[in-house]
Amino acid sequence: LFSLDGRRAFITGASGVLGAHFARVLHGAGAQVALAARRMDAVAALAADLGPRAAAVTLDVTDAAHVAAAFDAAETALGGPCDILINNAGIAVTKSFLQQEAADWDAVMAVNLRGCFLVGQEAARRLVAAKQPGAIVNIASVLGERVIPGVAGYTAAKAGLLQLTRQMAVELARYGIRVNALAPGYVATDINRDYFASEPGQAMIRRVPQRRLGSPEDLTGPLLLLASAAGAHMTGATLTVDGGHSV
Ligand code: NAD
Q1: What would the pLDDT profile of 15-59 be if each residue is shown by its tens digit?
Q2: CA-proximal residue: ligand 1, atom 5 (nearest)
Q3: 17 alpha carbon to ligand 1 midpoint, in Å?
Q4: Which residue out of 154, 175, 186, 195 is catalytically annotated?
Q5: What is the whole-number distance in angstroms between the Cα of residue 176 and the centre of ligand 1?
Q6: Coil, helix or strand for 75?
Q7: What kind of fold does domain 8-239 have according to CATH?
């Protein structure tokens, strides 16, 4: 039910903590994987470790002119269109609302929201042209529905991503393309390490009913559900994996 044999997955931000984990999970379930990152060397070791069913491709998700080239490279390396997309690349700028600058806002939107639009559209256009079904998983966040101080652009972008997910799901269902959001709670990675070392971050963990941070492994099953035939009737959904934090 959860097998991804014969599938081809494209993962953005594959050099990051969650992106690398997602790539390993999809590969382990049988998929070929295109590891997309801004610098090839950032994913070269992972590609080598995964072996012949993995390829590294260069993609800055803010660069509209190069999205098509990255998918061309993935198709050439993997032998056909990618029918799983994990829109995972993301950044956060942590400053109070009063201190956020327009450039901070623009940078976060460009990666976390516009990037998912550009890459999602490219993936979908190729699947529609090839008359193939597929699954797109947008990596959102519990912060698409809740708010903590200091991340105005991030929360707005992730909230927008939930609506983009629903929009894509409605418009792409007729082509057999499912689009869902996976919304993690707090997982200690490079994106938030400093925050969880601080007292506000520690207080945040105490407010999670399970009283712990998530781990990348906590997202393994939910990711496979959304990417595989096990989630065949799921589209437009937000799957929240947060230890009860948002309840
Ligand atoms: P991370 O910083 O380890 O990974 C983010 C990745 O995105 C990095 O590989 C980075 O190089 C890449 N990236 C940044 N800008 C890019 C660009 N312009 N083009 C291509 N790649 C770019 O952080 P992570 O925690 O692994 O984050 C992965 C995703 O999970 C993000 O979308 C993040 O918002 C989301 N998320 C994380 C948490 C958490 O607690 N860690 C919680 C909810 C959601």
Answers
A1: 999 999 999 999 999 999 999 999 999 999 999 999 999 999 999
A2: 16
A3: 8
A4: 154
A5: 28
A6: helix
A7: Rossmann fold (3.40.50)
